[in-house]
């Protein structure tokens, strides 16, 4: 609803919301203070690994969506 009210594509926003934390099962959700001592792989790197064996059309769609989210677009 908020996406529609703001003039955004609700379907795109829904997909970004679903995909935005798909990396956490592999790298965990590192608490803010722990980030001073630990370095996790970038979300885009984890996503690339997650979709590497998938069909190219699906991998490209997910990779682009995660990159868009990470860029704050």
Key structural traits:
mainly alpha, 73 residues, 58% helix
Give a short summary of the structure.
The chain has about 70 residues and is mainly α. It has 5 helices and no strands. It is flat.
Descriptive overview:
- Helix 2 (about 10-20) packs across helix 5 (about 55-70) and helix 4 (about 45-50) packs antiparallel against helix 5.
- The protein has a domain at about 40-73.
- It is about 60% helix and about 0% strand.
- The chain is built from 5 helices and no strands.
- It is mainly α.
- The mean pLDDT is about 90.
Shape: flat
Number of extended strands? 0
Terminal Cα span: 18 Å
Uncertain segments: none
Proportion in helices: 55-70%
Rg over CA atoms: 14 Å
Write the layout of secondary structure elements.
Elements: H1 2-5, H2 10-19, H3 24-27, H4 43-51, H5 56-70
């Amino acid at each position: 609803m908020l996406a529609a009210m703001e003039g955004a594509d609700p379907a795109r926003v829904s997909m970004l919301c679903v995909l935005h934390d798909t990396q956490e099962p592999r790298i965990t959700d590192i608490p803010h203070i722990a980030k001073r001592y630990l370095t996790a792989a970038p979300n885009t790197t984890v996503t690339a690994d997650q979709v590497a064996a998938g069909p190219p059309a699906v991998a490209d769609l997910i990779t682009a969506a995660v990159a868009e989210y990470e860029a704050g677009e």
